[in-house]
Amino acid sequence: MKKVIYNSKKNVFSEWINKFFLNKNSKYIWPQICYDWDTGELIHIVFEKNLKNKNYIKWPMKLDNINFTNLDFTSTPPKLENGKDWNFQSWHYKALKCSLAKNPEKIPLSFWDWRLNTKPKGNATCDLDFLCKTKNNEYIVAERKHQIL
Hints:
Strand order of the largest sheet: 4-3-2-1-5
Largest sheet: 5 strands, mixed
Shape: globular
Distance between the termini: 10 Å
């Protein structure tokens, strides 16, 4: 029974966000935050453009005083916002200031795919389900807790 309910339930949070921003003719993206595993400090934020969200996001994203990367996965290999290929084999040294548990063997399909295949040492990631900048230049983020029935 739980499987039937879980498979047919609606994602109220996502639907609300979509409706709110689409009604305002705004575009948005769900970024992935990389943080230090031990301290919880922000290391980097990745904004990913892909085939599912390419018509809904503002691109490229810009942040003030925060290290970030815009990755375009609508092409192979993935590209940076300047149109150059993303060097997924060495990007982590500068962006995440870490080494990898495994070297990437193939072109990743997404940033999450890259993380799963490389396991960056000393940092973790989560997707931010909501990120916006207020009129006072403050950032508000929300992470929706996933619940499995």
